[in-house]
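Show me a record, fold above all:
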Amino acid sequence: MSFNWIKITDRAREGIKIINSLPYATFSTVLQYVHRQMLSSSQNAAETRSEQKSSAELENENALEELEHLVGIPRPDFLLLIKTFSYILRRINTYIIKPSLLQAELREKLKLQDDAKIDAIVRLWVRQTTPIMNNLADERYESNEIADVAWKLNVEISSHCQQREKSPLAILQLKTGAGEDITLEMNHAELSELYHQFECIQSELDAILSQEHLQIKQNTKEI
């Protein structure tokens, strides 16, 4: 299953070709450099003094020059390499998916050719997303499930061209375990669409349960 998480332009393809051409050790060094720069740029506080900024920028320029010397390619290609790395890391940091799916996307959509390079990117992404997943697993989120559902019908009277028309509305009132009240107001078409989406979700759940039951039966036979 593929999803639209990144747009591969001609420039990005050229950058990916350069990534594929790098030895793994050089690739790993560039990957870690770009990752550190992204973390540094997001963590730099606005109150940092100008002389501190100048020192940090100088260190960054020196590190960039050393990295360019290590990679050993023309400067335009080197800058494209850095931009491509940054683009890929920014895009994967906006999604939380299965690592196996990310591996497949890097291999099939981005056309990365070295499994070791793909694994390095995935490991970096896992380290980034683990704190987010831990926060989502916090107990305070576990109670935020639907605890009660109420509904009622309402009739809205509208006037158009001096004609009075009754528009039925469905009002759903949801209460979560955390005490949050959610009210949804829908007309007939919107309610039908919501029902259709619920049916699709139910079908997916039924398919998953059927696969699990089949797997349990197979495991039981093997035992």
The chain has three domains: 10-45+53-137, 141-186, 189-222.
